[in-house]
Structure formats: C-alpha cells, structure tokens
C-alpha cells in the first residue's frame, strides 16, 4: 500500500484538474499590469494552436472542455516528469565517469 | 506571470534563452548525479500537481487573479535544481500544447518562474528553518515565506525584462508588478503551506529526501 502512495497523489492531482472550471477568469497579475499600462496589445497570438487557453477544441460545453484539457495536461506532465526523472536516474552508475 | 510573445525585445529574448538553456542543462547534469529511485514518482506528482494547480486562478484585489507558480514548493521538497527541471517541464508543455506563454518568451518564463523562483524560494525557506528549526512550525513558516518571496522576486525580474525591452519605464512597471504580486504571493504562500502541512501529516519522510 505504501509503495502506491503516488497513485493517491496522482488521483488528487486529477481531482484538482476537475476543479479548473471554478477558476477566476479575471486577468492575472502580469495581464492586469499590461491592461492598466496599455501594452497588452503588444502580445502576439501563438503561430499554432493545440489546446489553446486550456479549452479542448470542438466541444460545446466549455466546463467539460476545460476539465478535459486539465486532465490531459496533468497526465502528460506526470508522464513527462516521471520519464525524465527515470532517464536521469537510470543513467546513474552506468556513466559514473 | 506567463509572458506572451511580443512583450520582450530580441536582446532580452536571446539573453534569457541563453541563461535558461545553461540553467536547465546544469539542472540535468546535477540531477543525473544525484537523482535516486525515490524521487522519480515525486517528480511526476509535483509536475502534475503544479500544472493542475496553475489552472486554478484565485481572485485577488480589484478584478485581478493569481495562480500558483509552484517553484518554491518543488524546490523545498526536492531541491532547487529539481525545481528548475519540474517548472521547465510545466512551462514547456504550457507553451507548446496550451499556448500559455510565448515561444520566444519561453526562455524568460523559465528564467523567472523556474530559476529565480526555485532558488529564491528554496534559500528563503532554508534561512527560516535554520533560524526557527525544521520542526512543523519552522517548515510551514519557512514554506510560506519562501513561496511569497519567490513570487515577489520573479515579478521584479519580469518587470526588469519588460523595462529593458522598452515596454515601459522601470519606474512605472516595477512598482506595478511588485505591488500586485505582493498580494498574489500570499496565495502562493498559503497553498504552499497547505501542501507542506499535508505532506508532514501523511508522508513526513518525503521532507528528509536528499535535495537536488
């Protein structure tokens, strides 16, 4: 049971992602300053869009599209960071020089 | 505090990319030497948690919101270089998949929220635990202070980059950024303290891992 603590941790992360539709939609600190001081229009759109602004494209219900984007991102980050850590760890010893 | 493309000039983009590539490279080198079996799932959980928590903007004063950066939390649990790696993973995914933070601004975002926030958060935390002891109280007070300081300092570095890029004079952008992030940092401190408190209650041994 103790060795599976990370499963509980991942479940908590996925639960947090499901709360994402409750997030405040007000501009964040930098966006607020950019709006107040009049340089927000300098910002450029990304040259491509995948899951832009954390809304999964092509879905009618924005709350569900946001939760889906959150769940996908949470799983990707878990996989990428574990994979990176595993790669770095597993080379220990082999490349001891 | 994710900077979009268009705010920074080429010199600032080039400089911050160079520093961040060097910093992340060094983090990989150090993690390659020190990272052990036990840290692998924790790296994954922290990256996943920080991504999910960054989506949860909380309201602060006057129609403004803030969200967790998470660098201080990652650095307190795993060490500042591991913090740089974790935040870099989050920022790269946010930039490439979710179009949050510009491609050209990625170097600056990794520098501000990864390198500056991880190291400032970690050393402020260490300062508090060395003065107060690393019992529950010292850990929570240090965690709050480190988290608050990490946001405050990252916002100052961000303001300097904007000023150097010629967006606004330093005297205008620096107090504006520092002012609003003084408030946002309180949210960062409270979330960091709550997570550390949960870790202390359930898996206190995680705070004894070797820091990277």
| Radius of gyration of CA atoms of chain A, rounded to a whole number | 19 Å
Q: How are strands sequenced across the largest beta sheet of chain B?
A: 1-2
Please tell me the CATH architecture of chain B by its name. Answer: Orthogonal Bundle
Report on the biggest sheet of chain B. Answer: 2 strands, antiparallel
- The parts of chain B where pLDDT drops under 50 for at least 5 residues are none
- Top-tier CATH class of chain B: Mainly Alpha
Helix content of chain A: 40-55%
Look at the structure and give the mean pLDDT of chain A.
89
Number of extended strands of chain B: 2
Helices and strands of chain B, in order, run as HHEEHHHHH
Morphology of chain B: globular
- What low-confidence regions of chain A span 5 or more consecutive residues with pLDDT below 50? none
- Number of E-state strands of chain A: 0
Radius of gyration of chain B: 16 Å
**Tally of domains of chain A:** 1
Task: Characterize the quaternary organization of these chains.
Answer: heterodimer
Characteristic terms for this protein:
heterodimer, A: 97 residues, mainly alpha, 3 helices, B: 212 residues, Arp2/3 complex 21 kDa subunit ARPC3, two-stranded antiparallel sheet, globular
């Amino acid at each position: 049971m103790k060795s599976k603590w990370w499963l509980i941790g991942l479940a908590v992360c996925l639960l947090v992602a499901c709360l994402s539709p409750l997030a405040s939609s007000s501009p964040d600190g930098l966006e607020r300053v950019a709006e107040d001081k009049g340089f927000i229009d300098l910002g450029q759109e990304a040259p491509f869009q995948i899951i832009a602004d954390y809304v999964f494209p092509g879905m009618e219900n924005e709350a569900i599209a946001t939760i889906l984007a959150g769940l996908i991102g949470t799983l990707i980050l878990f996989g990428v960071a574990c994979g990176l850590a595993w790669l770095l760890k597993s080379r220990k010893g082999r490349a001891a020089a | 505090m994710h900077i979009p493309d268009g705010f920074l000039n080429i010199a600032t983009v080039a400089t911050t990319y160079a520093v961040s590539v060097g910093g992340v490279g060094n983090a990989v080198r150090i993690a390659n030497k020190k990272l052990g079996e036990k840290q692998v799932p924790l790296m994954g959980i922290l990256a996943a948690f920080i991504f999910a928590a960054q989506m949860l903007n909380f309201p602060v004063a006057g129609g403004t919101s803030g969200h967790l950066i998470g660098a201080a939390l990652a650095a307190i649990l795993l060490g500042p270089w591991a913090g740089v790696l974790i935040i870099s993973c989050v920022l790269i995914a946010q930039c490439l998949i979710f179009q949050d933070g510009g491609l050209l601004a990625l170097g600056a975002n990794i520098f501000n929220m990864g390198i500056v926030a991880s190291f400032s958060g970690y050393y402020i935390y260490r300062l508090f635990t060395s003065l107060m002891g690393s019992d529950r109280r010292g850990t929570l007070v240090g965690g709050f202070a480190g988290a608050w300081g990490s946001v405050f300092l990252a916002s100052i570095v961000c303001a300097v980059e904007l000023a150097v890029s010629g967006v606004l004079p330093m005297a205008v952008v620096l107090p504006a950024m520092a002012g609003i992030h003084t408030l946002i940092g309180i949210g960062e401190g409270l979330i960091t303290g709550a997570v550390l408190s949960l870790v202390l209650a359930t898996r206190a041994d995680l705070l004894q891992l070797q820091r990277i």
